[in-house]
Amino acid sequence: MKLTNFEQWMEDKILERGLAYLKKGKVLDLTTSDEIHYKALVDGSEVYHVDIYLNDEVVVNAYCDGPYDLNEYCKHKAAVLFTLREKKPEKEGVTTIVKPEEKSVRSILLNQTKENLIKIILDVIEEFPDIEKRLMFQFSSDEEEITSAKKLIQEYIIELNAEDLLSGAIWVKHYKGLK
User: Fold this and answer.
1) 8 A C-beta contact, residue 64 and residue 30
2) pLDDT of 11-33, one tens digit each?
3) Phi, psi at residue 61, to the nearest 5°?
4) Which residues touch 116 (CB under 8 Å, ≥6 apart)?
5) Which among 97, 119, 128, 85 has a CA at the least distance from the CA of 23?
6) CA distance 151 to 145
């Protein structure tokens, strides 16, 4: 299958969806280190990894970690092939395909450095302290989990007042603490 005519090897519905993904800017990043193996991120219901191997414009292999298994080619692969045909990234470079007006939170976060992501999380935690509690609980070890859960429940109970107890809000806050 050649990059110039891959459409004849795919179902029309897959091609339509792949082209729609391309037009919506769903191909987030496309990279190569050797002009043979191309790696892409495609934003679907999740971010999927697509690998395309080319040899002189011939598609030698294509892989996607998405769930589609009805045929060899999925819309994610089609979107990357359309993208490759339109504009290949330079060797060792990254071509970002996302248009600024079409960015999603997911695509913005995927393009951030580790340091910037940490700063974003710390800024959000400063504004919303409950997120810090949830993160600490989520990433605690098994041994710390019971201690963390008890502490979290105690903090929610302390926040309760007599009016909450009478109105039934206690059950909502207990549920929140146990989540």
Assistant:
1) no
2) 999 999 999 999 988 998 888 88
3) -155, 150
4) none
5) 97
6) 10
- Residue 37 bridge partners (DSSP): 53
Full-model pTM? 0.52
Beginning with the edge strand found earlier in the chain, give each strand of the sheet holding 27-32 in spatial order: 58-64, 47-55, 37-43, 27-32, 94-96
Of the CA atoms within 13 Å of residue 174, those in its CB half-sphere come to 6
Residue type, 132: E
The 10s digit of each residue's pLDDT in 87-142 is 766 555 444 444 434 556 777 787 778 888 899 999 999 998 888 877 877 777 76
Question: Letter for the amino acid at 146?
Answer: I
Instruction: Kindly write down the DSSP assignment for every residue of the chain, as one continuous string.
Output: -BTTSGGGGS-HHHHHHHHHHHHTT-EEEEEESSSSEEEEEEESSSEEEEEEEEETTEEEEEEE-SS--SSS--HHHHHHHHHHHH-PPPTT-EEE---GGG--HHHHHHTS-HHHHHHHHHHHHHH-HHHHHHHHHHTS-HHHHHHHHHHHHHHHHHH--HHHHHHTHHHHHHHHHH-
Dig out the tokens for 5 from the structure: 């005519």
